[in-house]
Design goal:
Elements: H1 2-20, E1 32-33, E2 36-37, E3 67-72, E4 86-92, E5 97-102, E6 108-114, E7 117-122, E8 128-133, E9 138-141, E10 146-151, E11 157-163, E12 171-172, H2 173-178, H3 184-191, H4 195-205
Antiparallel strand pairs: 1-2, 3-4, 4-11, 5-10, 5-12, 6-9, 6-11, 7-8, 7-10
Length: about 210
């Protein structure tokens, strides 16, 4: 019983010590764990760890999806490590799209700052929620649900997205199916697409097999 009590005291004091930290700036040279990066020594922390300038510049949209996401996650912005939040910039050229994707580790909040964006998500009950968002409008995407963003204007559209995690994770459905070496026969069986469609999509997205 005394051993159990001692163990409980150790756990309590350890958790209090962690919660007493003002911050845990990521040590990008150290290991990354499921809980985030290990902390940089406070003696080496500077104001630059809490400032990120990368979102001021538009991302390069000269690509297949005509879109760019500029992240300010813990790997780019060490100050957010352990704080339960992060942000990114989304640039969508005319015709640009962020395909169906999920963030397994975070909720997402999007605010449009330029143009118009058609955005939506699908619930686990397969209910669909989508709307064309104008400048200044905000939309929420719950954690783990499939969602998308499409440029709905005749000009480049821009949004900023915040997340409830310093590393929200990302899986793009199209790439998960067609940008790897999963055998085409399995893809065809699980998606009900025919062989020609699967091979075409693998060709476009870089998949094999």
């Amino acid at each position: 019983m005394s051993r159990l009590f001692s163990l409980i005291l150790v756990i309590v004091f350890a958790s209090e010590a962690v919660s007493a930290l003002d911050f845990c700036v990521a040590d990008l040279k150290g290991p990354q764990t499921p809980a985030g990066y290990t902390c940089k020594s406070p003696a080496n922390v500077t104001v630059d760890d809490f400032v990120f300038s990368g979102l001021a510049k538009a991302g390069n949209t000269a690509n297949l999806i005509k879109a760019a996401v500029t992240p300010a996650f813990d790997a780019q912005f060490p100050g957010v490590n352990g704080l339960g939040l992060s942000i990114a910039r989304l640039d969508l050229a005319v015709g640009g799209v962020i395909p169906m994707h999920t963030h397994p580790g975070a909720n997402e909040l999007l605010v449009v700052t330029q143009g118009k964006i058609l955005a939506g998500f699908i619930s686990s009950a397969n209910s669909v929620y989508y709307k064309t968002l104008n400048k200044g409008e905000v939309m929420l995407f719950p954690q783990g649900l499939l969602h998308f963003q499409i440029n709905a204007a005749g000009v480049t559209s821009v949004a900023f997205v915040s997340f409830s995690s310093p590393n929200p994770g990302l899986q793009i459905t199209d790439f998960a199916f067609f940008a790897n070496d999963l055998p085409s026969k399995i893809v065809e069986t699980t998606t009900f697409l025919d062989d020609a469609q699967v091979k075409k999509l693998k060709g476009v997205l870089g998949g094999t097999n």
